[in-house]
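User: Sequence in, structure out. Go.
Assistant: Echoing your sequence, followed by the structure tokens.
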Amino acid sequence: MRIGACISVSAALAVLGAALAGAQGTPPAAPCTAAAIAAVRATGDAITEVVWNRGQIDRLGEFYTDDVVRHVPERPDPIVGLEANKAYIRQMRQAFPDGRVDTEHAFSDGRMAAVAWVWTGTHTGDMPGLPTTGKRVRLPGISLVRVRDGKFAEIWDQSDQLTFLVQLGVIQMPPPPPAAK
């Protein structure tokens, strides 16, 4: 994974945290130092691996602010606060216990990051309004992340919910129109 032409996805997230941690009106630190790359790699990898892939949700406070706000397409209102975000991730992990996030691309301007990811999993647990289907899904998406004091403060997730629901068998796609003659 590369951010711009210089650092990895994980490195960019760490640089964001480091740049904003002590910066009141201070420009972000230069993103191409070895120390910044190592710090970001550790932070970014930890969020993905520890929280999402391993399900160690109680560690979320190491990476998110207490007042974190997450915007997701499947809910009309944002998920506000650390505990509400833990409950959201817990619900996803219960419905898809083998769920895994893989980062494909990431970009950063020093205060915000954009991450393209793919989430995969098998629906073996109930979700609100959706009983278990046993179906495997692949959900591509993007997240925009705002960092404050070295932690995620606001997240905007977007994903292909139509394809997700088709993969689960909840809805059927209409047949394609007939070919033009």
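User: And one key feature?
Assistant: Confidence is low (pLDDT under 50) at residues 1-10, 19-30, 32-40.
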